């Protein structure tokens, strides 16, 4: 059973991070990691949305293998803390979600605007409760 | 062909980082990510050593599936930079390498000293040249 108080603490921890690390499986079945800008939308710890380039290598990998994990990290003065969430990543290209997540300034990344075919949304859905805890280690 | 100047730049980038992110594949074939203390030894970009707990989940995963990647990351004021290396992770438990990588203060993590059975070494060997570049994204 997941402790409710800890879940709230983890939600706050994730919401405060400026970047996220996303992991995928490549076509040689090796894990891959990439740093991403912070999520655009967080629904509890269940669903987390990112915006990204449709042409990116991670999008290609998630279309072929949706198994994913997210990692959020904070370096403090004497220790670091991390949270890992395991789940499935979907690539969304419908206008509704693209409009919802569009932010002022995104034209820098997607010059054609909200309907730019190179703009898409990554939707992560947590499938495992096993790693929903903040781990910390002394630096 | 890898550009020699870029390789030197990447080596310096990695050597300066205080933490590393290591990725593994778990028993459900999902990618996993964890933050680790900086490598204990770096031999070019070919071989990178970490110290860790033999009882840890990552050690168990690498014994079952050695496919791995490392990710090094730096957050600047207006952009972040990252380097990913793809390769194989071995779990070493021989006294020679354990002694070589032992540092003052490690008794905090491994109370029984350099021969503590819960102290082991992760040896990462790069297998792919494909991701040896520094990628950067505006924050």
Could you walk me through the main structural features you see in this protein, from its secondary elements to its overall organization?
Two copies of one chain form a homodimer. Chain A is globular. The two termini of chain A are 30 Å apart. The model of chain A has no long low-confidence stretch (mean pLDDT 90). In chain A, strand 5 (67-75) and strand 6 (79-92) form a beta hairpin. Helix content of chain A is 20%, strand content 42%. Chain A is of the alpha+beta class. In chain A, strands 1, 2, 3, 4, 5, 6, 7 and 8 form an eight-stranded antiparallel sheet that branches. Chain A has one domain (7-130): Roll (Pnp Oxidase, Chain A). At the A-B interface, strand 1, strand 2, strand 5 and strand 6 of A face strand 1, strand 2, strand 5 and strand 6 of B.
Quantity of strands of chain A, as a count: 8
CATH domain fold name of chain A: Pnp Oxidase, Chain A
The CATH homology group name of chain A = Electron Transport, Fmn-binding Protein, Chain A
Helix content of chain A: 10-25%
> What Rg of chain A do the Cα atoms give?
16 Å
Oligomeric state of the chains in view: homodimer
Order of helices and strands of chain A: HEEEEHEEHEE
CATH arch. level architecture of chain A:
Roll
Q: What is the terminal separation of chain A in angstroms?
A: 30 Å
The number of domains of chain A: 1
The pair of chains with the biggest contact is: A-B, 31 and 31 residues
Content-based structural category of chain A: alpha+beta
Low-pLDDT runs of 5+ residues of chain A are: none
Summed over residues and divided by their number, the pLDDT of chain A gives a mean of 90
Overall shape of chain A: it is globular
Largest sheet: number of strands, sense, barrel closure of chain A: 8 strands, antiparallel
What is the overall number of helices of chain A?
Answer: 3
CATH class of chain A: Mainly Beta
Strand content of chain A: 35-45%
